[in-house]
Amino acid sequence: MYRNEMIKEAYQDSISITHRHMLSVINTMLKYEKSLSNKEIIRILDAGCGNGIMIYYLNKYLPLFNANKKFLIYGYDLIDHGVQEANYAKKTFSYLYDNVPEINWSERIKLIRSYDDWPFENESFDFVVSNQVLEHVWDHHQFFREQNRVLSERGFSHHIFPVKEVIMDGHVFLPKIHKLNSWDAMYHKVKFYTRIGLGAYRKQKKHYSYDIDYFSKVWADKIYHYCNYPSYAELSKAAKNNHLCLTTRFTFQYYWRKLREILGIKPDLIYKNKSSSKIIFFFLKYISGVSIVLYKGEYSKYNRSAGKDSV
After folding, report:
1. 292: closest CA among 306, 307, 278, 309?
2. Cα angle 291-293-297, degrees, rounded to a multiple of 5
3. Which of 114, 191, 264, 306 has the fewest beta carbons closer than 10 A?
4. Tens of pLDDT, residues 273-287
C-alpha cells in the first residue's frame, strides 16, 4: 500500500484526532529514538483502554507505517471506577474479537480494581500510552509507580489528557466546574450555566427527561466522583517521585494538527521532530488537552547507549 493511501485509510478509520495524534507520536518516536531502532518487536500497553477502539487502531496502522517491526498491544481497565458504562468490558471484548479475531484478547486485556497493581511483568513494555485517562486516575503516584515498573529499561510513555489548569471541562463543556471542591458548588454551577444555555444539556436533554435539575445532579456526581484532574505541578511531582523524566513534547504538534484539520488539511501521521516549548505549553494547557512524553529514569542514558538524539 502506498503511503498516501495508508494515510487516507488511517483518517477514514479513525474516530478521533487523539487517535491520529497517538499514532503519529509513536511513529515519530520509533523513527527518532535510537533505543528503539534495532528492536524488531515493540510491546505497547494501553492504560485505561476503555472500549478498545484505540487498541484496534494502533494494532492495524502501526505495522503499516513500520513494516520492519512487529507490534504486540495489550491493555487494562478498571471494573470499580464508575466512569465506564455497565458491562463495558463485554462490549470491548466483542468489538476486538469481531475486528481482530486472530488475537486472543482474553490474554491481552486485563480487568483490575483501582488500587491493584497492574497485572503485567516488570520491564515488559516499550511504550505505555493513555488517551483521556489521567484526569480520571485517583492516585497518580501509584499510576506512575506502576508505569515505571512495567516499562523496559529505556521505555517511554505518552499521555493525552487535560490538566487542572484547563478552563473548560471537556465532559459537560462548562468552565471551571472541575476545579470546585464541593458537590453543592458543582451542582449549583452546572445548574446555573445550563439555565443560561451553556454546556452539554441541549444535546443530552432527552436522556435526562428534559429535567435540568436532574441533569445538574448527575453531572455534579460524575465530576465529583469520577474526575481527578492533576495540575501540571502535581503531575510533575508524581512523575519525578517515581523516576520518570517528564517532557511536554508533542503538545504543540497536537494543536497544530487540530488547526490544520479544522482547515481541511490532513497532515502526515508522523511528525518531523519531537521538540517542545515551555512557553507554548504554558498557554495551551489552559485551552484543552496536553500531550506529554515520559522517559524512564535519566534521559542521558537514552543518548549514551545509541548515539545522540535531538532534544
Report:
1. 278
2. 155
3. 264
4. 766 677 888 899 999
Q: Are strands 70-78 and 151-161 parallel, antiparallel or unpaired?
A: unpaired
pLDDT at 305 over 60: no
Q: For the chain, what is the radius of gyration of the CA atoms?
A: 20
8 A C-beta contact, residue 6 and residue 57: no
The model's pLDDT over 75-113, given as tens digits with 9 standing for 90+, comes to 999 998 878 888 899 999 999 999 999 999 999 999 999
The pTM is what?
Answer: 0.92
- The per-residue pLDDT of the chain, averaged, comes to 92
What gap in Å lies between CA 194 and CA 69, rounded to an integer? Answer: 50
Instruction: Kindly write down the DSSP assignment for every residue of 241-283, as one continuous string.
Output: HTTEEEE-TTHHHHHHHHHHHHTT----SS-S-----HHHHHH
Contact (CB, 8 A) for 92 and 49: yes
Within the chain, all domains assigned CATH 3.40.50.150 are found at 3-165+229-305
Packing angle of the helix pair 3-12, 53-65 (nearest 10 deg): 180
Per CATH, is 3-165+229-305 categorized as 3.40.47.40? Answer: no
Distance CA 295, CA 155 (A): 6
